[in-house]
Amino acid sequence: MKSFGIKCLLFLLSFNLFEVKGQHLSGIPLIENYTIHDYKSVPQNWDLVQDQRGKLLVANNLGLLTYDGNKWELHDESFNNQLFTVARIGDSIYVGGENNFGLVKSDSAGRFRFESLIHLIPDSISEFGSVREILKWRDNLVLRTSDFLFVIGEKSVSAISQEDPIDHVFRYRENLYVYLNTGGLRRFENGELLPLPGGHIFTHNQPVGVVEWDNEHYVLTQKEGLVHIQLNKFGFEIRCRKKESPLDDYLKSKRILQCEQVGPHTYGLSVEENGLVIVENWNRISAKINHSNGLQDESINGMYKGLDGSLWLALQNGISRIALDYPVRKYDARNGLAGIVEALTIHNNQLFAATNDGIFTKGASNDQFELIAPLTSWDITSVDVSSESKLLVATNNEIQEINKDGSLSVIAECYPWSLKASRFDQNTVYIGLDPGVFAIRWNGSKWISSQENRFIDQQINNITEDADGNLWYGTRSEHLFSGPALKWYGDSVDFGEVINLFDGQDFLGDPVRTVFFQNELLIGSVKGIRNPKLDLEIDSSFQLKRKDGYIHRLHTHKLNNQLWASVYSENDIWEVGFFDSKKTWNYKFFNPLAQDIIHCYQEEGKNKMWLGSPTGVYEVALNSTFSISESYRTIIRRIVVNGDSIIHYGNWQDSLGKFTTTQPISSIPEFHYETDEISFEFGALSFGKGDNMTYSYWLEGDDESWSKWSPEHKKEYTNLPPGEYVFKVKAKNIFETESEIAEYRFVINKPWFETTWYYAGQTGFFLALVLLTFFLSRSGRSDNLASVIAFITIITVFEYLIMTIEPIFQEYTGEIPIFNLFMNVLLAMSLVPLEIFIKKALAKRRKNDKV
């Protein structure tokens, strides 16, 4: 054991682990990888962008890939197959391929189509290579291909061909710069490429992007870091000079391929054979994301910061999405941390973790955890005793102290579950056992162990002191014990009278958690949060959806006046978060990690929280400006009629060519009344995985209200009656933020026998029969004919009433046949007295006419 401790000491000293150098997040961000099994195309991708609605467009080797949060789709037929670039310029989406480029448009059915702009290229140039970059400069469209540079204006086109390959084109201030493979950097001016004063610094040193540092702009290069191009007041170059930065050693030792700004003063760098590197303010590397910690491929061809703040990567083999904006980082086996994390503590400004695989500590200056001892551990805590801090750990059968040199010293042999430092006696630590409880006390030179309390026959998993110093013992079963404060008499202790409050009555359920919050003792169990001051009834002041929900863990963050908890919610999912000073439950921010059930909590100051789980440790920045309420849109991606006829493919463009979610009036379809089925498919691209999205829909004209939230992203309607309809759908992401509502209007036409002109004709015919009846009756020409016509009129009225009343009657009777038959019999029986009445009326009129 001593030799192992010496090794730990040497390692700790070599990495300076006990020194804190900042509050930066340095773990692994949440990463989603998409493979060919997801997007059903070849692996290689070159570029990507999102349109105004949030739909992702990817330049793939087989054409244009799109993703709406639920479904990937390859649009290969009209996009000239292989694409190398896709760019959003204003409201337009441009794509470039081999000897072609153009706009992404949609046809009348909403299908993506390619509109070539090759006519803008001079006729004398039939082949110009693969289009690698498309950008806007001043009022010009700029294309860089493998063989040409095109600057396309409204009235003129500049085409520059170089034997020296053109490797890059970019804007810097108001100027356009072009990098030649061997000729270095040039400025484009009036159709010419002009050399720069001091431009030799770019020889064999390709620029990869323009960045900002200390309110000044610099060019980031592949091999030499930052370069400043100094311009005079007329915009002409004075000189180019190297800008020293704290990252120079790293930047010069690697080959930087691309650069994308991912936040204020934060950039993502694509590094050859090293994946992605995140740098902050050009003075520190905050993360290295590569194959070893979750990135599926280290060859990055394109980068794009998404609308939700995530960084999308077009890879040589796949597509990845990295949640860089989300202020949560994870540490797990990829960082050297193994096992289920049972407890965390901060000791001498250093994080320690107790897991079932060992005791670990995190280096303050890196993102790695190091093993201190391979001992199964259940709890770990830092205790301030006398004038120093002690680090204690509960292992399988011992309480041990981790010494400053990294060695371990046994304090007591027992079977511990939990450790709790006293708030009233800083030298005392309570130990929850299996079963029972005991205590240890620092006497200034050594630890003194008490005898065990054998009156408690349950496993004690937590101990809490209330405001009066009384002790409350939570168990791993349904028991709750309480007793007075301990009293030390030299080396022995008096536990006082300990009471089992419920004696296994299953009042609380198991396990039982105790915590002290806002000067009150609280009890958490599978049956909610309870308060001894309320006779241990549920404390409804805690604003949980499910008051009697399962409370898995509780922890008090004293500095922030917060009660942290893991809760099994009414939706049968896990929630993690905190109750604030008003006891409001704040959990939505933590939903992306809640299903990784949180076992333990450890605050680090006011602005950082560490969460332990079965799969690792999460680092959370509590002072982040990250918003969970960012707006996003739901897209109705496809509409199918009668199971096989696709009438809409999800895309509309307005008169200016901008993709929109607003349906043009001209695109409102009218369906035949015999249309059997209309189905809607929809999706939304927001933070988190697609299967974390839920949807609610409402068909105005048929449904009475919004549907319940469901992960189902398809809705079918059958046998809709004639009328005007509006299908509405909205999404809810993992933060429970609702999207903007997407709408689709359509009309189901009435059959000819329900149209207005038909009813008008029927009414006219009925009136004509009535008039004819009275005419014949008055003229006396044919009494029998008048009676027949009168009877026909009655039958016509009868059928009209049946057709009018039957739908209303069926709505209230549920279309039960016996009720429909009963209605028809009643109406039929009314024909006899009606016929008698009409005959009498006709006879009376004839009699009066004779008189």
What is the gist of this entry?
The protein is mainly β and 851 residues long. Helix content is 14%, strand content 44%. Helix 5 packs antiparallel against helix 6, helix 6 packs antiparallel against helix 7 and helix 6 runs antiparallel to helix 8 (831-850).
Structure characteristics:
Immunoglobulin-like, four-stranded antiparallel β-sheet, 44% strand, 14% helix, mainly beta
**Mean pLDDT figure:** 87
Number of strands: 68
Briefly note the CATH topology name of the domain at 634-750. Answer: Immunoglobulin-like
Q: Please give the radius of gyration in angstroms.
A: 38 Å
Structural shape? flat
Structural class: mainly beta
What is the chains' assembly state? Answer: single chain
Give the neighbour order of strands across the main sheet.
1-28-27-26
CATH architecture of the domain at 634-750: Sandwich
**Span from first to last CA?**
134 Å
- The tally of helices reads 8
Overall helicity = 10-25%
In the CATH hierarchy, what is the class of the domain at 634-750? Mainly Beta
SSE blueprint:
Elements: H1 2-15, E1 31-34, H2 36-39, E2 45-50, E3 56-60, E4 63-67, E5 72-75, E6 83-89, E7 92-97, E8 100-106, E9 112-116, E10 131-137, E11 140-145, E12 148-152, E13 157-161, E14 166-172, E15 175-180, E16 184-189, E17 192-195, E18 207-213, E19 216-221, E20 226-231, E21 237-243, H3 248-253, E22 256-263, E23 266-271, E24 275-280, E25 284-289, E26 300-305, E27 311-315, E28 318-322, E29 328-331, E30 341-347, E31 350-355, E32 358-362, E33 369-373, E34 377-385, E35 388-395, E36 398-402, E37 408-413, E38 416-421, E39 428-433, E40 437-442, E41 447-449, E42 460-465, E43 471-475, E44 480-483, E45 487-489, E46 492-494, E47 499-500, E48 513-517, E49 520-525, E50 528-531, E51 537-538, E52 550-557, E53 562-568, E54 574-579, E55 585-586, H4 591-594, E56 600-604, E57 608-613, E58 616-621, E59 634-641, E60 645-648, E61 652-653, E62 659-660, E63 670-671, E64 677-684, E65 694-700, E66 714-718, E67 723-732, E68 742-748, H5 756-779, H6 783-813, H7 817-829, H8 831-850
Parallel strand pairs: 63-68
Antiparallel strand pairs: 1-28, 2-3, 3-4, 4-5, 6-7, 7-8, 8-9, 10-11, 11-12, 12-13, 14-15, 15-16, 16-17, 18-19, 19-20, 20-21, 22-23, 23-24, 24-25, 26-27, 27-28, 29-58, 30-31, 31-32, 32-33, 34-35, 35-36, 36-37, 38-39, 39-40, 40-41, 42-43, 43-44, 44-47, 45-46, 48-49, 49-50, 50-51, 52-53, 53-54, ...
Helix pairs in contact: 5-6, 6-7, 6-8
